[in-house]
Amino acid sequence: MTDDELHARLRAADPLPDLPPLAPERLDQLLEDTVTGTEAPTTRRPRTLLLAAAAAAAVVVVGGGALALTGRDGGTTTLALAPPDVSASCAALTPELLAGSDVAFAGRVTAVSGDTVVLETTQRFTGEVGDTVEVTQGDGSVVDGAALTFEPGQVYLLTADDGTIGSCSGSGPDSPELRALFDQAFGG
Amino acid sequence: MSRTEGGVEEFESVARAVVEPVRRYLRRRTDAATADDALGEVLLVLWRRAADVPADPLPWAIGVARLCLANAERSRRRQHRLAARIGPALPEPDPTEDVAGALDDAARVRAALATLKDADAELLRLSAWDGLTHDQLAQLLGTTTNAVAIRLHRARGRLRDALEREGPEPDRTARGKEQA
Question: By percentage, how much of chain A surpasses pLDDT 90?
């Protein structure tokens, strides 16, 4: 099977080959609504939409890694590095966004051995976190180049939501800016 | 927010250029309502961040759409967890799979795609379904065109392997639409 044949089979597997374009008047309305900030009558969740868009409006790169909470054994929480988001664009972090996290903590990297990163928990903001956190790095076959890279000795501020530290979760190296957001989100 | 007339025109020009590809990108990956919401968010970002939109706006817009979709999935997971506490879990919809589920070649290819790593599968989808060029993929992924070519080559190899594991290719004449 040549590349062209494979490509043709892939294209034939497109679940949506025939989506008709938006009606011109519907598109006009959509663009007008965007610019004027008013909502189309058919929009069901205007407030959510606006808030989410406001957050997305200031795009910052936080990192492409995603960590999955795979288990907890006594004092050790184990996390695995899941495939990152293809896009390196993340919504601007807000305290509100962080505050929704299940787990938030600060950890210092005590060891990096092969694919395993060990962090010592230095501060708990919310949720249950062991004294030690193990993170299994991905295998490097990531699409995105912006995966979170753990450096020995460095302190990281990490959040997990639904057992996953998402690529846009706000997790990153400790910095005054990030810490201020965490303090705001979790009340210091 | 105050914008000049020129700003509005520029936004409209960019938005009209990307709205259909972004819309199809979203609808291939989620339900219609979520796609509509995400499309509105993408347009708002295009409007508010007009100064940051690069010369080729499509990869950038797709990147924003990915983010919006990820946010929507995140809140959906939260709702599912809440629902799980008060009742039976809701089934995970697969917007890309036909309900009828006839195992034609398209379904076989989609099943094979699903066995690949997310990064490989998404790269193939972005290329074949969303029609992004190597240059556009490089911009979206923040890498070089060469790296994209290599990753695509490897991903195709893995898809071939997955398809072979699925069994021999069926009679090609029996397949559905060849082109979108």
Answer: 15
Q: Is the Cβ–Cβ distance between B78 and A164 less than 8 Å?
A: no
Q: Are residues A92 and A151 in the same domain?
A: yes
Contact residues on chain B for A58, CB-CB shorter than 8 A: 49
ipTM: 0.74
Q: Is residue A8 part of a domain?
A: no
Q: Which residues of B touch A165 (CB under 8 A)?
A: none
Torsion angles phi and psi, residue B63, rounded to 5? -60, -45
Q: Do A78 and A159 share a structural domain? A: yes
The span from the CA of B68 to the CA of B84, in Å, is 24
Nearest to B78 among A15, A90, A162 (CB): A162
Element (H, E) at B61: helix B57-86
Is there a contact between A53 and B48 if contact means CB atoms under 8 Å apart? yes
| pLDDT of A21 above 60 | yes
Domain that holds residue A108: 66-186
Structure token digits, residue B159: 């898809």
Closest Cα to residue B129, out of B1, B25, B33?
A: B25
B71 touches chain A (CB under 8 A): yes
Q: For chain A, what is the radius of gyration of the CA atoms? A: 21
Sequential DSSP letters for chain B: ----HHHHHHHHHHHHHHHHHHHHHHHTTS-HHHHHHHHHHHHHHHHHTGGG--SSHHHHHHHHHHHHHHHHHHHHHHHHHHHHHHSPPPP---TTS-SS----HHHHHHHHHHHS-HHHHHHHHHHHTS---HHHHHHHHTS-HHHHHHHHHHHHHHHHHHHHHH-SPPPGGG---S--
Task: Identify the DSSP state of B51.
Answer: G
pLDDT, tens digit, for every residue of A99-139? 878 888 999 999 888 777 888 999 999 888 888 888 765 43
B92 touches chain A (CB under 8 A): no
Q: What's the CATH class of domain B1-91?
A: mainly alpha
Chain B interface mutation, best of A9, A19, A50, highest count of B Cβ atoms under 10 Å: A9
| B146-152 mean pLDDT | 94
From chain A, the residues in CB contact with B8 under 8 A are: 35
